[in-house]
Amino acid sequence: MNRIAQYSLQLLTEFDRVCRDAQITYALGNKSAWDCWKRQSMGQNAFLIQILIPRSDFEKLQNTVLPEHRVLLVGDTKRCDARYADTNSTLFDYAHPARYKKRCPGLELFVVDTEAAKPTYVTSSKTITLRRNYFANLTSGKLESDTFPVFEDLEDYLLDAGGKKYQTSWRFRTIDATFSTFLMVGIPWSEYKKRPLSREALSFGATLYRFAYLLWEKKLRSKHKKPVDRQELMLARTEARFSLWERYYPRKDAILAAINQQGLTEEVQNELMPIVRETERFKSKGLGFSFDEAFLQAILPILEKKHGKKYVSELLEMIPKEYREESIEDILRKSDVHHPLLQAQ
Question: What is this structure's pTM?
Fold first, then answer.
């Protein structure tokens, strides 16, 4: 889990305790219910927890005394009816600088009209009609290391809420969401929203250097329209490319000079082995991998010796041409990102 997902889970544990003390009924809903049902975890890139609550219990929650720095924000976003939020922290979104004053982190609450013949609730995209009142039969479902209320007929509910797509696609976030780089700042929202973007951004160091590169990757993925169920793997590849670039860029000239002078000695092969392993890892999952064209050419003889010419040919076909035509350092320079490795030149 990323940092925001971990914190959201802490808020959920706290919210669960508040509801138990006040005898308030709720259940995990939408994608959070899917996470609980299918894999009992939030996933690497998830950062939202969604909750369904009957209207009568929501009204009771509005009159409940909440812990310090917690508030029930009603109508502050079109995504949900309300949010159980932490007013002492703020989310900072690098991937969408125009919306950097996003809001404090919180749980998304959807109010369900359980008195109707067919209970309904509204999401950002549609009104969801349930076949019956699932709150009549609740059970416990595991999410990470804790258990929380879920519907006993969870598969029926998911079919009502997400249609048949719940069986495959709900475990992944959209391209827009997964490529957002969220950070949490320990500053009250009322103070944070007054601060200029540039002053706050400069305090985050290395995370900012990845921002322009993530945006480039985001446009590349959108262009190729890869299936949604590959997003988590693509994000892992993005991180691996940038990490290897930071590791090898300072020594690039020295390593390539050694190869030109001495060939692929055992020492040089050991030096290149992390690149070889990452290339093999993503190739085994059907993704081409390369973070630098010169290093790619350097490891091809190693891969050919281990796996054969056909393996190398398939790998080269898998690698996006953008990876080979534009280097990470060029992407950062075009984006006017002053990475320390580039400033050191």
Answer: 0.54
